[in-house]
Amino acid sequence: MPLVRITYPRGALTPEQKRQIASMLTEIVLEAEVDAVTDAGRMITIVHFNEAAADDWAVGGELRSTAAGPPNHFIVDLIVLEGLLDSARRSEAHRRVTEAFQKTFGDGGDPMLALRVWVLVHEVREGGWGAGGQTVSALGVAQFINNDLDDARRAEIAASLAKVSHG
User: Which own/partner contact pairs does 11-17 have at CB distance under 8 Å and 24+ positions apart?
Assistant: First the structure.
């Protein structure tokens, strides 16, 4: 049940760029969590575009409303259930999300774009996420998204959750 929230200055993304980014980020987060992009996973993955008004966005102490224009910054919050992303999976998500923005803006674009895409992974503790009026578990969601979740990945998630609950 990943939630991706992208915050950026109003007007920094066109509708077509939003569509492209939403599609790529949905795939990236599902592959990071459960190694598969499925219809069930797409159905419960939300990408929320949060545009900030020029008077509500400052970089280097200067409001966007008084800035000469771009460059734009993007804050990408990946909100996932605890236990689904180990260090390697988080690093891979950081890299792939940044690459998605680079692909969206084109290869001949701004070489500094990668430094202005900030990817923050937030893990919601087991028992802290609810849907359908009930608490959901990381392992339950993983199995819902990927009905063919292999035994090794299932064991990896269970071990991660056990480590966190005893840590």
Answer: 11/51, 12/51, 12/70, 12/72, 12/74, 13/49, 17/104, 17/105
Report the pLDDT value the prediction gives residue 65, as an integer from 0 to 100.
87
Q: Record the tokens describing residue 86, joined without a space.
A: 């180990």
What is the Cα 163 distance to its own chain's centre? 24
Overall average pLDDT of the 150-165 stretch? 89
Please report the pLDDT score of residue 166 as a whole number: 63
Tokens representing 152 are 């090794």
CA distances from 53 to 20, 87, 90 (A): 22, 34, 30
Radius of gyration of the chain (CA): 17
CA–CA separation, 57 and 128 (whole Å): 30
Can you give the pTM of this predicted structure? 0.93
CATH code for residues 3-166: 3.30.429.10
Query: For residue 160, which of 81, 56, 60 has the smallest C-alpha distance?
Result: 81
Token pair listed for 96: 């792939």
- Comparing CA positions, the residue from 112, 89, 88, 91 lying closest to residue 102 is 112
pLDDT digits (tens, 9 = 90+) for 113-137: 999 999 999 999 999 999 999 999 9
